[in-house]
Amino acid sequence: MRVRLGTFAAVTLAVCFTMLGIGTADAQLPPMSSLMMDAGSGQILYAQNADQPRYPASLTKLMTLYMLFEALRDHRITLNQLMPVSAHSASVEPVKLGVPAGGRLSVEEAILAMVTLSANDAATAAGEFLAGGDETRFGALMTLKAHTLGMDDTVFRNASGLPDPAQVTTAHDLALLARRLIQDFPEDYHYFSTPSFLFHGRVIFNHDNLLKSYPGADGMKTGYTNAAGHNLVTSAVRGGVRLLGVVMAAPSNGYRDRQMAGMLNAGFATELGPATALAAATAAAAARAAQARAGTGPVVPVEATLPNGQRQVGSEVGLAARSVPDWSLDLGSYPNKASAYRALHIGVRTAGGGVMHLAAARIRSHLRWHAWIAEVSPARARSTCSAMNHYGRSCVAIRPYNGRELAER
User: Fold this and answer.
1) Options 33, 34, 86, 118, the catalytic residue
2) Nearest in space to 199 (alpha carbons), one of 117, 275, 270
């Protein structure tokens, strides 16, 4: 048993997952596997059938990408280097770019094709390229690399994830791989959030729905075969905390996405619960406070009931208010007030205005400061978070609070 949460947190997560309907589904598939990990510490927050063998399907491409990124880092290949497309690579089905045998594909095009379209011909060509033209040898190299990463229950046979009864992994092993992709190749991780790319005159869109629908999601990979079911690895960041989720053997894309979103929601509630509750209360109070302010307002106390039943008081720091409340910017939690203020001032300058909020809460005996900017126009909220995320700063654009979370990446 790898779960290392305290009893209360584990019970809370279990209740959340039960309410969300997380469990097994299609009788023709094995029981669904799922796991959630704190990417920073490696702590496993939730696991269900996480060590049971499952077919990875196109999640296999995460290891193919790891091998490509490693070769790039070691200067064995370059992004613009052209890879030959063999007759075998060109023949794989069903999802592919359609490069004919004898054609060529750049390393970067292969990366983008695997991340967005999950193109099997791109993955096969990359595997052959890295293994001297032999995909079978590449499968052995993938397996060896997996074992050096601690993925002891994983065996790879091909670069794409096309069906092979000997190609198996576990939700736990895939979480380890996802974490290592983020840690080992921070300069390449941005590829996983690519919404689309242009290939030979056509736009190829990313299959990962959570990139568009889940606040804070910034990548990883989808996968599907009849035998594997619907698989997904997702990374999401909120309040300075990155969580990694794995769902395998789900009966449909929609079911899989709902499972992942529910699992991440429960995880963030556990990891950031008190600060998140105060931030939400602060945002809800922004409209009321704005009506009472003219120009620069006084400090307005904000009181919230936290998940543990205690009541804590934060404070709102007022700037020039807009007449109509709009969107908000969640800038995350910080270990001290100075860091939170710095994030607030950067956010206000980037957004061109807004109402700053600061809320304090204790999380696991540590005092954290949650920074929030209210009353920002939708366009400004999106552009501000895009700019701040580009420079590595935490920012999630939040629509006006109405009792349920409405946020954009």
Assistant:
1) 118
2) 117
Q: Which of 395, 388, 286 is nearest to 330 (CA)?
A: 395
Residue with tokens 């193109």: 119
CA torsion, ordered 142, 144, 150, 154, to nearest 10 deg: 60
Residues 374 and 325: beta-carbon distance below 8 Å: yes
Q: For the chain, which residues make up each domain, given as ranges?
A: 7-251, 274-408
Residues 6 or more apart whose Cβ sits within 8 Å of residue 392: none
**85-99, 132-146, 218-232, 352-366: which has the minimum mean pLDDT?**
352-366
Q: CB-based contacts of 341: which residues, under 8 Å, 6+ apart?
A: 358, 371
β-bridge pairing 202-205 and 196-199: antiparallel
pLDDT (0 to 100) of residue 309:
37
**Can 118 be counted among the known catalytic residues?**
yes
3-state secondary structure of 374: strand
Active site residue 58: yes
Query: Of the candidates 302, 318, 405, 321, which has an alpha carbon nearest to the alpha carbon of residue 361?
Result: 302
**pTM over cut 0.70:** no
Q: What kind of fold does domain 7-251 have according to CATH?
A: Beta-lactamase (3.40.710)
Which segments of 262-351 are extended strands (E)?
300-305, 311-316, 327-334
pLDDT tens profile 113-169: 999 999 999 999 999 999 999 999 999 999 999 999 999 999 999 999 999 999 999
Which of these is catalytic: 34, 58, 89, 235? 58
Structure tokens at 363: 């999380």
Among the listed ranges 74-88, 113-127, 200-214, 278-292, which one has the minimum average pLDDT value?
278-292
